[in-house]
Design a protein that fits this description.
Layout lengths: L1 H9 L3 H20 L3 H26 L1 H27 L1
Length: about 90
């Protein structure tokens, strides 16, 4: 957090990306060592879906065509993920 704050104050654009990458790498290693990698991937996918919904909401306000297109893409991805999950459950 301190590195992120210093990067914001001093306007270093690449430091937050590097720090975020380091945190992501450390959490992946921890998840693998604790044998919780599947749940880590589920959490990352959930956060990505929430970010996509938030971005789509922002796009709906700014540019409605792009917002509707992004909402349709997210819905198609969610339906595909549900179909894949039900296919894997049958096996």
């Amino acid at each position: 957090m301190a590195l992120f704050g210093i990067a914001l104050v001093l306007e270093w654009a690449t430091v937050p990306l590097g720090a975020g990458g380091a945190v992501l790498a450390a959490t992946v290693v921890e998840a693998v060592l604790r044998r919780r990698f599947f749940w880590f991937l589920i959490a990352v996918a959930s956060l990505a879906a929430l970010a996509a919904v938030g971005f789509a909401s922002w796009l709906l306000v700014i540019n409605w065509r792009a917002g509707v297109a992004l909402v349709a893409l997210v819905a198609a991805f969610a339906i595909g993920a549900g179909n894949l999950r039900s296919l894997l459950r049958r096996r």
